[in-house]
Amino acid sequence: MNVKSSFKDVIHRNTLEAYFTEESDERLKYLKDFGEWLCRWKSLNLQHGFLTLDTFNALYQNTIVTIDLIKYSLSELKMSYVLPGKLQTDNLEGTFSRYRQLLVESKSNSGLNSARYGPITFSVGNLAEAGQSAKKICLMNQMK
Predict the structure, then answer these.
(1) For the chain, what is the HEC assignment?
(2) Fewer beta carbons under 10 A from the terminal one: N or C of the chain?
C-alpha cells in the first residue's frame, strides 16, 4: 500500500511493492477481503480485543476508498499506473500541526485551571495571525 516510487519493487525485489497498473490486481482483491474481514470482526461484538470505533471506521474507510481510487484512476482517468503511497495526508497533517503550534499562544486571560498542570491559558488566533503563521510555515518548509 505504501508504494511511493515506480521502482520500489525492483530495488527490494518484492512484487508486492509494485505500483498498480490493472484493476484486476490481486492486491486489490486482498484489500477488499481485508475490509470484509474487518466488518465480520466488528460484527462479533466483542467486549475486549477489538479496535475503537474511530480506528475501525478510519481503517475500513481508508481501505475501501483506496481500492476505489486506484480503480477509478486506472479506468476513468486512464492513468498508466497508481502509487497509493502518494495518497496519504501526512504532509497536510504536518502543516496543520505547525499551524496549531504557531496559533496557540497566550494573549488573554482565557484558559483552564488544571489540578495537575496548573493554569493553562490560550487564545484563538485571528485572521491576521493565521496569515502570519502561514508565512512562517512557508519559510520553515523552504529552509528544510
Answers:
(1) CCCCCCCHHHHHCCHHHCCECCCCCHHHHHHHHHHHHHHHHHHCCCCCCCCCHHHHHHHHHHHHHHHHHHHHHHHCCCCCCECHHHHCCHHHHHHHHHHHHHHCCCCCCCEEEECCCEEEECCCCCHHHHHHHHHHHHHHHHHC
(2) C
Q: Are residues 83 and 3 in contact, defined by beta-carbon separation less than 8 angstroms?
A: yes
User: Could you tell me the three cell numbers for 70?
Assistant: 486506484
Q: Does position 41 have pLDDT exceeding 50, yes or no?
A: yes
Residue 107, all three cell numbers: 494573549
Helices 26-43, 53-75: axis angle to 10 degrees equals 160
Over pLDDT 70: what percentage of the chain?
65
- Cα separation of 90 and 24, whole Å? 28
Residues 68/43, Cβ–Cβ less than 8 Å = no
Integer-rounded Cα radius of gyration of the chain: 22
* pLDDT at site 107: 44
**Is residue 78's pLDDT more than 70?**
yes
